[in-house]
Structures are given as C-alpha cells and as structure tokens.
Design brief:
- The structure is a single chain.
- About 75% of the residues lie in helices and about 0% in strands.
- The protein starts with a helix and ends in a 6-residue tail after the last helix.
- It has about 270 residues and is an all-alpha fold.
C-alpha cells in the first residue's frame, strides 16, 4: 500500500499508480544512453577520417572534426542532442496522458466528485509530470557520465550536469505544451499530434539552419536552437536560453489553467 503522502495527494497517487512505468523508462533510458556512450571509441575512429569532409549544412547532424576528439564533444552531439528524442516522446505521451487521458477515461470526473478544486487537480497533475520527467532525465545524465567513466575518458561532471539541465528544460517544455493542450481541449490525441509535429519540424529546421538564410531565421522558433549542448558543455549555461525555456513553460501552463477550470468536462 502507498504511504499516506502518496495516497492522499493527487500527484503522489499519480506517480504511485505509474511507478512501474517510471522505473521502466528510467531503466530503459539508463541502458540506452549508456549503450550509446560505449560506442564512442569505434565512432571516434570512423568519424575522424570523414568529419573534415562533412558540409557545413550537415554538421548539426554529424558534428565537425573537433566533436569527435573528446568524449564531452561526442556526448554533446550524440547524447544530449540526437538521443533527446527518447525523453521527448516520453514527455509528450505522458504530458497528454496525465490530464487529458484521465478525462477521456472518466477518472477525472470521479476524482473531482470529491471536494477537490480543479486548480488543485491541474497543478498536482503537473507536479507529477515534472517529477516524472526529472527522475528520468536524472538517469539520462547519470548514464552519460557513467559511460565516460567506464571508458576511462575525462569527464567534466559540471559540463554534463549543465547539459542534463538544458535537455531537461527542453523535454519539460514539450511535455508542458502537451499537458496544456490536453487541459484546454480535453483531447489526448490532439495534444500529442500537435506537439509531436512541432518537435519534428523544429528539429528538422535546427538541423538545416546553416543551409539557407530563411531557415536560419526560422530556427529562432525552434526550441532545439536554445539547447545548444556543445556550447553548454564547453562554456556552461547560457542564461538567456534558460529564460527562453522558462518562459515557454510558464506561458502555456498559466494560459491553460483558467480555461481548464471554466470549460465543461467530457462525460462521454
């Protein structure tokens, strides 16, 4: 049985009900990122000979010669950029499931039949989502560090902490958007499709940002631009980029709350 904290609070009950899912995602993230980290030596040898011939427009995908000279450069490129697709999918799926999913399954109506305010329900569900994402992303960062240690590579722990923090903000932002859209519409699939489509387009634009001036301008609307893992790994957090993420999290979360409180809930 869950403890009183988990049984009496909505956020606690939500996490407890999904405890095995959380452990599964944490374990899968740990194993997958650790596995990618162990690929560094053979990839380093392979890419060292061809990285100088990579066109500028493709360096976001493949990196440059300097990327493959250190484990830190490899991690910024392959782990904290390319592998973010895994936690992003997780955040979108559970962002819509934690609120809109409960509404579609009529769990929300049952819960709100008790003396619980909608704003409390909304905020506690979001708190559960935040905790879920932070736990999984902690495993993400730990596995990246452990991979470097296992390989005997030099690991700047603070650089990896900073990259993990920025990646977590990116993942949390997209999860928040999915959560907010679900709160506004009450439709789980709608929020997932919209945010998933944005993530795909935003990543594609960021990847091709060096190829044309117009794409470079469009890249300002891509959240992946503000991740900038290579720079974060080398120079630390860019406060302006942190502010962009915090703003992108706060605005939809605040806008969605009064709409969720006032709209009719689905009874179908």
């Amino acid at each position: 049985m869950p403890s009183n904290l988990f049984s009496r609070s909505i956020w606690g009950h939500t996490l407890f009900a999904r405890r095995w899912t959380i452990l599964l995602w944490f374990g899968a993230t740990l194993v997958s990122i650790f596995g990618v980290a162990l690929l560094f030596p053979p990839i380093k040898e392979t890419m060292a000979g061809i990285s100088n011939s990579v066109p500028d427009s493709m360096k976001v995908w493949f990196g440059d010669a300097q990327t493959w000279q250190s484990y830190a450069g490899f991690s910024a490129q392959e782990i904290f950029l390319q592998m973010t697709i895994l936690p992003i999918i997780m955040a979108i799926v559970f962002g819509v499931a934690f609120l809109a999913g409960d509404e579609e399954n009529r769990i929300m109506l049952t819960t709100l039949a008790r003396p619980i305010k909608r704003e409390s329900y909304y905020l506690q569900k979001y708190l559960a989502l935040v905790i879920f994402i932070v736990l999984v992303m902690t495993g993400f960062g730990i596995s990246a560090v452990l991979g470097g240690v296992m390989l005997g590579e030099k690991v700047d722990v603070m650089g990896f902490v900073n990259c993990t923090a920025m990646t977590t903000l990116l993942v949390l932002t997209l999860g928040t958007w999915a959560f907010a859209i679900g709160a506004i519409t009450g439709r789980k699939n709608f929020g997932g499709i919209i945010v998933g489509f944005y993530a795909f387009v935003a990543y594609f634009i960021m990847s091709l940002s060096e190829s044309a001036k117009i794409i470079e301008q469009l890249n300002y609307g891509s959240l992946f631009r503000y991740l900038d893992a290579s720079t974060v790994m080398a120079n630390g957090l860019e406060i302006r980029h942190v502010v962009v993420f915090l703003f992108a999290i706060a605005v939809p979360l605040i806008v969605a709350l009064p709409i969720f409180i006032r709209r009719d809930l689905s009874t179908r």
